[in-house]
Amino acid sequence: MGLKLQPSQQQQQHHSVAVKVNEQTGTKRGYTFIQANRAWLPKFLLLWVMVMAFLSTWIYKKMDADIKVRRKEVLSSMCDERARMLQDQFSVSVNHVHALAILISTFHYYKNPSAIDQETFAEYTARTAFERPLLSGVAYAERVVHSEREEFERQHGWTIKTMQREPSPVRDEYAPVILSQETVSYIESLDMMSGEEDRENILRARATGKAVLTNPFRLLGSHHLGVVLTFPVYKAKLPTRPTVEERIEATAGYLGGAFDVESLVENLLGQLAGNQAILVNVYDITNTSDHLIMYGHQNQNGDLALLYESKLDFGDPFRKHTMICRYHQKAPTSWTALTTAFLFFVICLLVGYILYGAAIHIVKVEDDFHEMQELKVRAEAADVAKSQFLATVSHEIRTPMNGILGMLALLLDTDLSSTQRDYAQTAKVCGKALITLINEVLDRAKIEAGKLEMETVPFDLRSILDDVLSLFSEKSRNKGVELAVFVSDKVPEMVMGDPGRFRQIITNLVGNSVKFTERGHIFVKVHLAENTKPVVDAKAETCLNGGSDEGVPISGAHQFKTLSGYEAADERNSWDSFKHLVSYEESQYGASVNMTVPGETSQSVTLMVSVEDTGIGIPLIAQDRVFMPFMQADSSTSRHYGGTGIGLSITKCLVELMGGHISFVSRPQVGSTFTFTADFGRCKKASFNDTKKSNTEDLPSSFRGLKAIVVDRKPVRAAVTRYHLKRLGILAEVAGSVKIAVSACGKNGSSCGSKIQPDIILVEKDLWLSGEDGGLSLRMLDWKPNGHVFKLPKMFLLATNITNAELEKAKAASFVDTVIMKPMRASMVAACLQQVLGIGNKRQAGKDAQNGSLRSLLCGKKILVVDDNMVNRRVAAGALKKFGAAVECAESGKVALKLLQIPHSFDACFMDIQMPEMDGFEATRQIRMMESQAHEQMNGGGIDKGLAGKGEWHVPILAMTADVIHATYDECLKCGMDGYVSKPFEEENLYQAVAKFFQV
Amino acid sequence: MLGLAADRLRADTNRLLAFLFHQGILDEQFLQLQQLEDESSPNFVSEVVNIYFHESEKLLRNLRSLLMDRELSDYNKMGIHLNQFMGSSSSIGAKRIRNVCVAFRAASEQNNRAGCLRALELLEHEYCFLKNKLHELFQIQQQRVLAAGVRYPMQN
Would the ipTM clear 0.85, i.e. be above it? Predict the structure, then answer.
């Protein structure tokens, strides 16, 4: 963030438009830009809104103006149309009046006598009135000079009257109407010259010879506004270019008609569309200062803002007319423009807001992202720190704890009172528990960090199981809990895997079981995972097992067919299914004793291990968090039984690392059965024999071929016993009671039908204790001397725990040669048998555990120790010498190089990593280089056959280091080292590292 | 009488060792060292410890001269010496000395002269203390050997 702020200051100068564009084009430039301008985002939004508001206003104005222009255009076109029509109609009428004038001049004056009288004229005009729709009527007035007045009056029989219908006063001229249309007959004999308007009209008409119009005035009849049209009629034909005087002279009379303009225009407008919308006024504008209205109301309301003027030409050059149009209503507010602009604004607002929102969101997401990244880095750092802390702390705790334990051991060596000894012992036990816990926590941390790697070495599963069981034998014996293990014969003798981890899993599970079980049994069963399925359909093929089952009725209704007779949580382990497994193997075992497993071709084998107990079980509510670390069933559990609850979670992790999964079935107060699967590699026969000696205890083979009868009523337990005997090569049969066993022997004595000639009879303690069998066994004892048995079968008593009294009783009974304490282990059984049968122990080689084996590994080996520190050198040399190795020392990498010049006789080299001048890595690299050179030479020259026979030069180099961080180990391997040992030598560590190279 | 003395000597050894462990002067590595002692190398521990003393005295001398001689001390060289010292100390299980070395090294890495001087003084002090105690221990052990040697023919 801090980095980002700097550029943002500079970029604030950016032009806002550019910014806008960028925001609109989306977030392609994205990160830096938006992030850089984050402070400006609200301002951008505001600016955007303002710009958009301005834009929408502009749009509104534009649209409004458009509408106004269109309105104006409509108005003008309508106005023009109206004016043109009016003009046309008017001129048609004028033309017709013209025609009338010609008619009169032709028939009234040129004919003599006149062909037209009032009647004819009236008739004619009435019949042609349709031609002049605009004229209310036409009349003809004759020009009468004052001198002719009397003559005229006499001729017509009436006096000339003025407009006011009075006899006309004396004038120069008169224009009395002589012919008139019927509609205007009331003006006959009126002197047109008496009216001001008419007089002017007449004078102008005869001077111009054209139709002339009066000012608009109210017409006599209708009181509508109108104009009078006057046309001169000439007596004689005029010259082509007559002067005014000539015209006046030639004038005979005047034809006039009144135009009812108002009704004219009204009619006209009525015919046209859009009449309602516009308001039309027609003006006479001859006098520019005073417009005379011809049509329409002067003060009519209308849209005063907009008017249109059209010129009218009615054919009278003297008069000017104009038509003015305007709309009735004011221009309506244009909703379309308004809504368009508004919507535009709204849309832009929304778009702006969306972009703003997006930008804000991007900023937020980026912020979050950075925060998360930072947190991630911190979390990772914390994780690393945690694992380092754990490693360090547990190491640091282990160191003083070792001190404490060491001192306690020393303390226990001293003279202590029994109380003190007890205290010290307790302290030691607690300390050991603490160390175990620390190791577990460290394991857990390692697993979580994914740093736990599984070994792949061949190991004997059975002996490991025996070991684990013997670990817990003391505890289980004290509790009276039966502890047993059964491994299916199909499980290979040696498998490839991590024995330590496997042991850990089993120890955890069995330890838990032992902890929570007060009665009954704990039963570990191992078989191939594939076996579980076919077991079901494997029908009972055995006769002997079945027979013994029937032979001994189960006493007590509550007996279950499990190991100890207590109910177990998982039914699968009960005899009903178990016997199939056993019998299935039985048949196979019979076929091939050397345990060649059919599916041996496959590289891996999946084992299913189940640990069954009859303990308190797991409460239902706690069952789903059993595998969670530090979770025990409830807090009271830890109070009762102790423990941290980390064991099962580690177990689960380990099982998963072994490629399997773990599950359990548990019923409270009944027990739990933990079942897990794990993948192991099959062991190749070749490597089998080499490694066998190193980490398995060899079972004596001297019992091979012996036969035994196991007297046990509980089939599962019998099967377990048989399994252990079988491992010793002893063929065992199961009998339900001593009686059956005895009878088997007896049968053998009488008829040789059965192949059983038992050498050993093993009797379960609880069976023996029940009186009936005891009696029977005595009888058998009685029978024994009588029989012709060449070899008496030895009797053994099998017991989980035995009281002294019982022991005495057994000894007294003396039919039992010895007591074998459970849990059974092949080696222990072997020891007991050896003791009793006296079979020579050929392989009792001194076996002081690893010490001896380490000694055997290192004995006689020549080893180079390279360390600059004299003390370290001395200690390392001392430690190695102790195991019989010949040690030579070098105080620097260079000296080591010199010593390791080929050919040399060293078997291995221990190399310190931190040395001045040339450190361990460098020295190793050089040694390896030297070796490869030597190798090449050898290959090239092929001289030294002796060396070639020895194989390639590769002296095992082991790093000695004080820190056992994983990275260092990787580094070691990278520069060609073969392994490492942590600096203060520990035997086990050393053994593991060395074992890879020196195999006996 | 002699048997009693042997017991007393053993108790003394144990007490002394317990003290050394309790004070954190030694750690379990020393026990491992003792375990390496057997018939073939009866004086292994004292041999190693003597080498350790010899080396350490040299190192301490060097460190002091490095710190004293020049104003600008050679911290690199000091670090190498300290590494050596640390290695040998942890080998014989001289835990407290090792811890002081760690502090010393930290100070030298920071070129903190005052800290180095303080650490050096502490180191010398610890060293002397350890030397005294170990000498005491070896003396007792020698007496024990003598006592055992005396007792042996008597039993026969």
Answer: no
